[in-house]
Amino acid sequence: MTTRKHLNATGETAITVVSPMAFGGEVKNQDRARWSNATRTAAVADGVTSSPHSVQAAQIVIDLSPMLFLAPDVVESRLGVLADLLRIKRLEAQVAGLKAGSSTPAAIRSMLQDAANEKLQHSHQTTLVSANFVAAGDAIVSTVINIGDSAFFAFGPDNQLLYTSLPLSSSEPTCDNTAAGLSFGPGACLLAKIRGDASEFPALAHAVGIRPCSAGNWFVVTPIDLLAGTNGNGQARPIGSSFCSIRLDEPIVVPRYLVDPMEDAACSSLCKIRFSRNIRIPGESRCFEQSFDGKGAATAVLPDHFPGRAGHCVTERFPRATDFLLCSDGFYSAFDNTTAMRRWLLDHKDRLRDSTQHVNILETLHQQLHDKCGDDDISFVWVFGDRLTRPADGETDHVV
Amino acid sequence: MSYEKKISRADPGLIALVIDDSGSMGDPLPGTTDPKYMWTERYAGIILKELLTRSTDADGDTVKVKPRYHVLAIIYGSSHIVWGDGVLDIQQVVEKYANDGNTLGLGGKIGGTDAKGALQKAHSILQQALQTEQFSSSFPPMIFHLTDGMSFTDPSQAAEQIKQLQTTDGNALMVNAFIGTQTSLNYSSSEDFPGYVDAMEAGPSEDNITMFEMSSTAPETIRQNLIEDGIFPQLRQDARLFFDVRTKEMFKHVIQVVGSLGSRADRQVR
Question: What is the pTM of this model?
């Protein structure tokens, strides 16, 4: 077996792993990952195999990922600059050209040259998932950028899946609420009446997938009105999209950290709630465990799919003790679902931090992935939310 | 789950092209003036180049072939010919193709149509190949059968035997493309082609129904690849890998089914 280097960097706040493909007769090593402790930014990039110079593209986006979040209002425009840089690199590669190797039989040299020229039209392609974390009181505000099938996950203190950037499959149920409801989406703020915490409403809590042990972390509220921000056009949307539809006077279940009580004592039962995909709406079947089966072979990439698609950038609030995971598809594809993936991380946390033991567990994981659907590069950044509220002093960045 | 394996050098994709070169393939393709065998040559050449492109990687400033696909080609009429020495890797295939003047040597010149004999030969060669370590764990092979007329021998049993061949990732996939036939399915082009889910849609011709039933159901991986690549964007779930070729445009898309094999190591850009 070719000697490969598993790259692993650990600190108090994050664990970063890049592990090249081990089986399959291919040499890849196209994943790159970074944790920037100074800027509290994580990033994973997965170069596309069929794209020449994709490793260079993955390295560029990783190196520059912290600058995407330096100014909150211009995240998407900075992503545009990054995409343009990759396009320039592509033009330079086309001028430089690719040639058939000297051992190529003469009969197919011309055909191979045509193949090379065609490939250069799509050089420097990479996926990117990157996130910035800001501690805000008892919550963590995270801005997530995602292009392609690398993914961002958030797991709550009880290991429940709070957020996934992967799209819900078309076979999963969509929102039941009809156009009679309000469309509640990113940027919007809801005025609601607090009914009590979810432990007082066990049937409702059960219906929206909240376990009894966690019910105290959730409020049941009744929407009264939308206060401000952008909304949809009033029509119900599939829950895989950013918006959800809510009915006035019908209870929804909201994580405690999203609830801002009104300051006026006369309105103590009222609160403001900023939009989050973590809000649970009865009648809307949500995926609290995401399956990784049936993933197609297609992915969006930089630079080709920016600009052009909505939803590259989203901001969410999470409880302080949330764990965050950014990873390439090679990592999550080794598992059947998010529960299994989370279990693996927790079971191997200490060994991942050990400079010798991590090699063995990654080799085993590569075998697992190979047996399931074929090996691939594996990379991830695991960020511990409860550490983010501490000062960043003394901890070095991870760039692997 | 089955049909999930990526195509790679260690687990390469295996494709068998079983091509009718009987006398009727010298007749024009409906809607054109060129004979059917000439269109077959054109589109087969395109797909071989596509498989070559997928098997090339840049290494610094050079490009190298890493064979991720292997091809068996059988050309038949009243008898059959194994093109090349049997199963060839994509570099060997393209080399022979180029040395032969960029042609498979088709000409509508092998008389009648004995599909049974050709499929039996394909079964025999594939059975041996799947017993080797090279293919035993790969995405299951695809047997792409192209014909313009019903065989004077019954190929149904041979097709069933082929569908029983398997790798660790599932059973072999039998694809049947019938040039020039008429069915009951209403569609205008590859853009709205929904696929054949029910035998009645392939009818009323008994020959069509036989070919439909010889064909495997498209696994979800294949179906998604065909949709995402824009080959058949409306293909229904549980559609069979049976295709009627009514036009040259449909012919071009049907032959690209060959390229839908596998959960590809080189992820396709949407």
Answer: 0.77
